[in-house]
Amino acid sequence: MRLGLPSTTQVLWAAVLLIQIPLWFGQGGWLHVWRLERQLDQQLQKNDQQKQTIQELEAERKDLKAGFTSAEERARYEMGMMKPNERFVQMVRPAPSAEESTASSPGGQAKPSVSSKTPAGSRAQSQPPAGPR
């Protein structure tokens, strides 16, 4: 009668599984290394962004040290400063009217629209739309 002792094959499989568990899940295992690699990639991206910001600031610092043109440009742009006897002219594009914003359909095709704007001295005439009768 057999006492139910494990066979040699079963013992070897159990040993392989016990060896694999720390390899996958333990400290320094594959999952831990994978997580650290993701953190490293994120940190490297952040470092690259910060290096670019530092380069931009360094270029601006050199420009400010080199001459007054950048300081003058910055004063004009950020503070609205002007030289004596200088005129400020600002070009503003008109906002799209309600007619223009409803003139195009979602499909990208323009809908025909009737404009209420007429040249001075003329009268608007309404005509029925041309089509098959």
Describe this entry's structure for a reader:
- The protein contains four helices and no strands.
- The protein has helices at residues 8-25, 30-66, 69-79, 98-102.
- By secondary structure, it is mainly α.
- The chain has a domain at 28-83.
- Residues 110-127 have low confidence and may be disordered.
- The protein is elongated and about 110 Å long.
Features:
133 residues; mainly alpha
Strand content: under 5%
Question: How big is the Rg?
Answer: 38 Å
Please report the number of helical segments.
4
Largest sheet: none
Average pLDDT metric: 75
* Span between termini: 104 Å
Q: How does the overall form come out from the CA principal axes?
A: elongated
Question: What string, H for helix and E for strand, traces the elements in order?
Answer: HHHH
Structural class: mainly alpha
Share of helix, binned: 40-55%
Low-confidence stretches: 110-127
Quick description:
The protein is 53% helix and 0% strand. With 133 residues, it is mainly alpha-helical.
Task: Note the topology.
Layout: H1 8-25, H2 30-66, H3 69-79, H4 98-102
